[in-house]
Structure formats: C-alpha cells, structure tokens
Fold these 3 entries.
Entry 1:
Amino acid sequence: MPTHSDNADMLTRRIAVTGATGMLGSHLVAELIRTGHTDITLVVRDAGRTALTMSAIERLGVTVPDGVLRTVETQLTDPAVLTDALPDIDTVFNCAARIMSGSMMPAQLIDNNVAIARSVTEWCLRCKVRKLIHVSSISALGEPPSPEQPVTEECEPAHIETHAAYGRSKYYSEREIWRGASAGLEVVVVSPGVILGEGAKGGNNSAALIPAISCGQPFYTLGLMSYVDVRDVARAMVMLDSRPEAIGQKFILSAGDLSYKELIGMGAHAAHRPAPFIRIGRTAVNAAYAGMRLLIALRLMKDRGVTRENLGSVLRTVHYDGSKITRMFGFRYTPLTETVTRVVQAYRRRT
C-alpha cells in the first residue's frame, strides 16, 4: 500500500487533463481537486469552454484553491505543439475524443480520435511523462467466447470493421496507447460502459440520454447495455493512478447491465412519469432512424451524429464484466438506481 509520503508526493505531481470541458473530464478535474492534487492543467481546444468545467466543479460542491488550476489552449493532434506547450507533466489523463460525429463523416470521427491518441502518446514519450491514463470504451471490445459469458477486458473484436465509428475509433486509439506502452510509457486504460451523469445541456455525450429516459416515453426494446456513474469513472481513474499494480492493465468500468425497459422505467420513476409499456423491434427502430434523418434534412432536428449502428445498438443483448477493478482494489460502484435517480432529478431541476 502507498505510504503517507508517497501520497503526499503524488498530490504535488503535475497533472494534465485533456477533454477537461466534457462531462467526464470536468468530473475528473473535480475529483482530482477533491483528493488534494495541487497542480492541474486543463488542456483544451477552446479556453472559453472551461466555464463548463468550472460549473461542474461548483455543482459538485468542490472548492478550487488558488493556484491549483491553469488552462492551456492548444490543438491536441500535433505532438510537437503539445510538447512545446506542456514540457513538464508527470501524469496525463486523456479524456479527449469526439463521441458523436455530428457534421463529421464516420471516417473523420475515427481519424480525429486516433490522431488525438497518437499525438498524446507521442507527447508523453517525448517529454518522459510518468504515466498516461487513457479513456477507451466498451464499444472497442469484441464478443465473448459464448453468448452465456460476459465481455471481459480480454475480448478482442474479430471484425472491428463491423463496429460503429466510435467503437472503431476507440479500438484504433487503444493501439496507439499500447504502442506507447511498448516504448516504455506507463499506461492504464479504462473502458467505461455508457456513462451516466450531469453534463452540459444539449451536449452530444451520453448526458443526452437523460431527457429521453425522464420524459415518460412508452416505448422500450428488449436490448440491454452496461452503465456506470460518471463520478465512479472519475474516482476509478484517480485511484488507478496511485496503484502500481494497475500499470499495463485495462479495466472495464461497469456498475451493471440494464435492459432498456429497466433504464427507461428507472428514469420515469425518478421523474414521476409513467413506465414504458410498448415493446418495439427492429422494424420500428429502422423507421425511427429514417424519421430522424428526415427531420434533420428538413432542419427540424439537430444532427447529433446518431448513426444507424448507434440506434441499432438498443436491440443488442451483451453483458459486460466490470469486476476486475473491484477484485484487484476493492473499488465500489454506485448502484445504478441511485445514479439514474440523481441524474434525472438534477436534469429536471435545470429545465
């Protein structure tokens, strides 16, 4: 176990967080401050968006001591630029990635996310960064050996080209990160399920789920997905930075699987709305996608980059095993009922 002096040394190390204006990045910054870190750099493409980070920190009730945070505005896809801007960093938490393509084509989303991972890895190698903690996704994993088994960290995709663009981008990004590990960089990878949390209003991340599950919609599918609290992901990342045994390891972060009926039902209950009662299948999902594309074409709906593959995932039934971190380190997840209730009620207070 780390000693008191080890902990004190860790808290003064120079931390950099990419993607710090996103839902996970902002919660991670709050967790780093809460645990006593004193030198944190927000690496952002647009310094104006750090207001989102500060809003999240305030919402979480975390006080920012003077001099703890600084912001560096720079592009993330050029390692030379990052090296010049941030030559002296001890630990990098890489949360930066596009989640939905929006106006981007799928190939552009993949190129963007892989370029960030490659650039960050090269920056860490050039500057002899002590450790890189990288956020991947369960969408980059493959199927289990048999349908009765859950997906684990060892499940490699047999045909990555059949995955949605985001999953492919995360798979190829991981390859860049592990390339850095083979060159001597200390690496930890976390692969969260769908992250539930309080994000920016109108954002393209998984916070966009919350309006959909809190409106009392009647429809559900038989599919299920793995979920995790954004606060748990932030806690896990900070904890893993302090554990030498985590180096070179990948951790699925999942508090459990929920069917879409269960998820929508939880959200409806928290919002005091009716539970879903109409089951739909592939035909209805395909019709919903066609209708969505028509509304986008007519400029009646914002294009948030939802693809046919994204929408079709509501029909999949795959279980994920997030127990590795609990077995190795005794980590405890927040119960999903508690997470959904908190997030839905926070959303309703803001609307």
Entry 2:
Amino acid sequence: MKIDVISATPLKHTTPALIIGCFEDVRDELFSACDAALEGCLGRMAVSREFCGKLNSTRLVHTLGKLPAERLLLVGLGKRAELVEERLRQASGSAVQALRAAKVASFATSLHLVGKPESALEAVCEGALLGSYGFELYKTKERAELFSFEGMTLLLPKGGNRQEAVARVAAAAAVCRGVSLARDLVSHPGNVATTGYLAETARELAVRHKLLCEILELDELELLGMNALLAVGKGSVEPPRLIVLEYRGAGDSGRPVVMVGKGITFDSGGISIKPGAGMEEMKTDMAGAAAVLGALEAAAVLKLPVNLVGIIPTAENMPDGKAYKPGDVLTSLSGQTIEITNTDAEGRLVLCDALHYAQKYKPAAMIDLATLTGACVVALGHEASGLMGNDQKLVNALKKAGESCGERVWELPLWDEYGEVMKSDIADLKNAGSRDGGSITAGWFLKQFVGKTHWAHLDIAGTAWSDKTRPCSPKGATGVGVRLLIEYLRGR
C-alpha cells in the first residue's frame, strides 16, 4: 500500500474516507469540529452508546456532502490517559480492516495527530500496513474481485516537517516489509516452502541487499558432524540444510548479533507421529526461520549500524524407513550425545547443532526463535512468547523491546533443577523429558549448546499463528519476532 504524506487540514481534505481517533472520555478539537459539521450526529451516537470510543471499535459514517471527506471512519482509542503507542498501532490496524470490509481502497488518516509526535506517526503507519496484509496467492476463483488497498494519505499539521515524516514512514514500511516476508513464508504450504525454498529465499535476500550467503548442503553437514540436524531430515526426500546469512552494517569492527531460527518446513512428528486433526498447521513450524529472514530484510533496508548473522537449520520431519526413531543415540556437533525419546521433539535437535555452530562467530549476543513446544501455548496462550536465557541484561532488553513494539514476551525460569528430567541413562542427554514444565526443559536443553555466549531463547509456538483476526494481523501467520528483533537491535 502506497503512503503519501501531505500538509492538510483534515476538515478540508477531500478523500473517500477520513480516519479520526475518538476517546471514551474526551472530545478533542477534531471530533468536535466534525460533529459540528455533521450537525451533532457524532455526539448523538456517543450519547446513545452507538459509538462511544471503546478501544478498537469502529464506525463508518457517510458525510452526505457536509465535509470534503465522503466518509468518516471513527476508531476508538479508549481513555485519553491510557493512550500509548500500541493502542494507536492497533487502532490503525482496526481502521484499515473496517475499510477493507467496506471496500474503500483509498483513505486519509489523522490518527497520529492525537499521539506523541516522536512515535505516533510510525505506530499508525505500522498498524495500517500490518492490518492491511492479506495472503490470497492460492485463491483462483474470482481473482478480479479480490480487494486491495490503493493508498493511504497521512495528514500533517501546517508547519509539520514533511521530509522527516517521509523518512519515518519509510522506516515503518521497512519493518512491515520484513513482517510481510515472514508472514508469506509461514503461509505457504509445506509442498512449496521446502528447505530448498528457504535456501533460495535466502539467496535472493543476499542478492537484493548485498549480504553474504552460505548454504551448507547434505554432504557438508555430514563432514561437519551435524548429526542432530541430519537425523531430523533423514525421513524426508527434502534434504536438510543450514542457511547462513551475514549483514555487516557496522563493518568489520563489531561482534555480530546472531539470530537462529528453527526451520522445520513441515512437522509430522516423525515416527512419534502427531494426531491427524490440525496437522495441516504444522507447515508453520518454520516461523522462527521466517522471523530471522524477515528481520534481516528489515535491518538491511533500514541500514541498521549493527553486524548480524542469521542461521537457519532447516529440515522436514517425516516418518520413513530411514527416519530416526525413539531409542536412537545421536552425537551432536558439540560432541554431546543425545538419546531420542520422542521424534516429535525435533526442533531442539536442529537448533542444538546450529547454536553450537554459531559460536564460531563469537557473538555479542545470540537469540533463537522457535515454535518449539505446545507446553508454551498451554502456559502462555497466544498473547505472549516464552522467553528464557542465560544473561539477564539480554533478557531485560528483549522484554523492553517487546513492550515497546507490542510483541510481548514473558520470562520463564531456567533453573538447573529443570534439567534433571533431561538426563539419559545411556547418553549425555535425552531430547525430551516429562510433560511437566515442557517449555522450560526444552529451553534448558538448548542452554547446553550455547557455551558462554550471551543467549536468549524465544518460544513462539503460541504467537506465530492466530486462529482469529487481530487488529494488526488477519487470521493466520503473524510474522511474530521480526518487529521484536528490530526493536531490540535499534536499542543496541
């Protein structure tokens, strides 16, 4: 969606629809002026509780020629004292979804005028771009009737710095571009988004932004001894791969932040096969990989002054005559041996080799993202990602970034006592313990492969996919992790 920035008075601007923000407890100057132009219509709606400014509520009103705007879209912001950047982001997303339902393709917005000048504009842009996203690539019927937005116009007050505003809009668009890439990757079916597809996406990203790209194929993984990653991919005709991308925004001087994303392109559970109901959603098990690729896309467009390494261990977990099985013992890249007790606990296996491999880059910090455990969904639902780590400063920085950008995280303990259930009688470790504290024991397992690196683990199993439409994302892939990583990196 194209975004234009102009200096204009909302009441005098001609547009198919004008978005205005409305509070529950305060009628600001713009609301009052629109109400007067419409002969008290908005005030009567508030009195009758037809529209009263409740957060994310919307109401489309035709102006019948009484204003240059053909329609007003009222969007609720809640109480004035509670207005924060995330509420503006959500309100903007709710607004564009209401306009999509009404098939209004072009519109103007004044939402940012009610927030803090230094942050409101980006929040409104992000909300509009994220909320307008749709994935309809595989729909073949009535394609001519599929709706798409044409453009949004941001109205600046007279005297506003248009050049600065345009730059801030471009920054918000860059972040959303990364989110859209991640959403697209997760939305593709498993017969399209294979390990080879992820590798080709990485190559295209490298060409587009002049990144360094290395794809370690099957024979190279065997030579290195990445037996945990190899084992997970043995049951599939799609070979496992390790994808490495390097972005050098700080030149050769700074140690990189390493981002590791789980890239299981489809997870049947392997020999420990999952129930059939809902298995189609297991195409989303590469959402961590998608987040890393999306974050690299955004970081490169933004030209962030940091060095980054993205590492994606990717495989397809399938049952086959060659598939790894319960009772097998694997020797990981680190040399630690792992007894397999559940082939559906495969994510930690591909990650453990990748995390050990990542230490060659001497990371300033290392963050992995993975749709790792159903236990995290049980613990936190779909509102927050699980967060664990061995460095409190890094954990706190990710918490702060999550609160700022709206991709919330919740810290879980990582005490050594949780590791007792992961000890094997015949090997160094088991890949799965009891159901109790399953997301934490999985995190504890990963911790054994990071050495002394400052490391944090994000379990995005509950947040990578949504079964309902939310203000800033439609039903389906959320692209979670991209904005969180970019906000964290900006903070560095």
Entry 3:
Amino acid sequence: MRMPRSTWAGALILGLMAVAAVVSPWLLPDPEAMDLGARFAPLSAEHWLGADELGRDIAARLLQGGRVSLAVAAATALLAALLGTLVGLVAGYYGGLADATLMRLTDGVMALPLLPLLIVLAAADPAKLGIAPETLASESFAVVRLVVIIGCVGWTTVARLVRASTLSVRSRDYVRAAVAVGAGPGRIMLRHVLPNVASPMVVATTLSVGNIILIESALSFLGLGIRPPLASWGNMLTGAMDVVWSAPVLAVWPGAAIFLTVLAFNLLGDGLQRAMERR
C-alpha cells in the first residue's frame, strides 16, 4: 500500500511530537515550577522557548500540553470509533426497525449544535452525581471527563460510514455462507463484516483526531476543559490572552503546536483514504 509523500510528512511530524513529549520530562525543567525572577525570559539554553508570566518553562509546558492534548484526542477518537462502529454494525446488519431507530438517533445527534452542546455538558457540575471531592479535584478525572463528553457526541460520522459499508458487505456470498452454516449474528459481524468495513472506520477515526484537538483546545480556552496547573494547548492560549500585547510569543507556541498537529493528522488521514481507495 503506497502512501503519498504528504502522508509520510504528517506521520513524521506526529512521530517527532510524540517522541519529544515522551522524553521531555528528562530533558526539561518541571513544567509547573515557577520562578518569578525569570518572568518573560527570552530563549536561552536554560529556557529553550523562553518563560511565561510566572517564570515557567514554555517548552516544558508545551510538551506537557502535547501529552495531555494528544492523549485526550487519541482516547476520544478511540471511544467515538467504538461507539460509532457498534451503532453502524447493528444498524447495517439488522436493518428494519433497528436501522431506522439508530440512524434517527444519529441524525438527531448530528443536528445538535456541537460546540454549544459541549459547553453545556462541560459546564455541568459532576459533584451532583455523588462523586467524591478528591476525585473531582484530580487531574485524571478532568481528562477522563473531557474524553467522555467529546466521545459521546463524536461517533456519528463513523456510525454512518460503518453502516453504509455493512449494508454492502452483508449481501456478499461469504456472509450468506456463514448464515447458511448456522453462524450467529455476533460472530458474523465480528469475523466477517467488521474486518471488511475497517477501512472507512480507520480513515474517519484518523481524520477526527485533528477536530478533537481543536474542540479540546476550545473548551480549555473557555475554562471548561483541562484546567491549570496541568497544561494543555488550550489553557496555555487562555493564559497568553492576558499578556498577548506585551508577550505575543506566549500565544504563538501553543497556536503553532495546534496548527501543526491538526495539519499532520489531516495529511495522515487523507493519505490513508487515498491508499485504501486505490486498494
């Protein structure tokens, strides 16, 4: 399966970002360590990208934000792919009332204004669900909550693509043969249908990662996503807004990271789509 050069460029950018994010704790200072004597420090051997308004190392925070943003995007894309694949497989294989019900549900979710809906869900108080205060204050809970919120409304594209492919695959001879020898619906969907509808699912999931990063950044920018002191590219932009006229470079670095990451995922997704279409 030959890939266009742009696809390899996207994969290279993502690979370099992933390696830098993983090794940064051993090469860079603590991203949450403050040094008021180094406020707005310029680029130097000590601070590779300078320091922010609290003297924190920008490079360390940028790569910590990369770990958080990429982890949220990958987990959310996986959750959305699982939900969308389940809905699409059941709707496409069974047809009839199940298909009509699930697709009307999908249409209803797609018809909702995405960003306002996510803002409402993110602004809801989870303490009313009886969750312990120490759990609410943990950084991992904020990440998991964001993944669930975005994933529960981001599965619709995968569902429609998987349903369309399933409608085509279920009428083929090998599926009819499996039915004839007594295989159950679950086994047929997992062993015979799912492998043959994986291509559109993989492409849609890859392309969705860039959009998820933008959504996470927007929610964090509005104060409804990842919250300080844990860094994400969105809340780094929020912090930069207060000093954007005196230190505009604080907004440039997270903005450039978001741009490059979304571009890389889109290049990778487009390349996979072209390669699978040729195949």
